[in-house]
Input
Amino acid sequence: MSLYNAIPSTSSESKLRQELSDAYHLSVQYGWDDLIYGHISVRLPEEPDCYLINPFGLLFDEITPDNLLKVRVDGKIIGNNEFNYNPAGENMHHTIYKNRRNVNSIVHFHSTNGVALSSLNDGLLPISQQACHFYNQIAFHDYEGIAIEKSEQKTLICDLGDKDIMILRNHGFLTAGRNLQDAFCTMYTLEKTAAIQMAILSSGQKFDIISKEICEKVVKQTPEIKNCDLEWKAMVRGLRRKQAQSEPIALPSGKLLEFIEKHEYNEKPFAADVAVQL
Output
């Protein structure tokens, strides 16, 4: 069950490539990346046995629409590419896409808060409004080592069942969705929940557990208030602003530019001719 009333995407491959690239860059902005590890994928609606995923070896902020891999559920990469996919990603994404036809996007991270929470005996606690969204909505999968063994495919899909949110014990989080926005925005809320819980626990203070009745009420209310389309658009607007700010600044013409050019290749230190008074 998803947090959102999401419908499957009908976007073209080029649009999905841009959206998936944005998702990777947003993950960096939110601090969920783990060097070259972790993965987000999206199934192609016109080719349901194919999906897009990150090339193994690139940082998340190096990913572009053009360098995303197109992979069949049998593992074959479509087209020429110098990169391969993460073998753990193959196991997780191939298995879920083959066994859950209603899943069109998968997100898996090992963020600091995600791994920390996944390692707690009590797991996710109902101690915040965010946590209530996930009440009785989470599947659990025990750690079996790095997820590259074919034998783990059976236990992974069995543990996931019909749920769209999974805590991989001692490992991190996984979310599945009807579209990319569904899976990614669910991960956002899950990561926020983990950050809140770890902050509460690290305070050492006593905390209140929200009642079962209130948690169940929030679960019913969630689809009425949570909107992945609006959330995603807000995320992308923020990303575009940051991308614009990080672009090279155009220098003005005139005396300032002449001054900078004059001193840019000066072998002496910039302030070498300035006497220092002690």
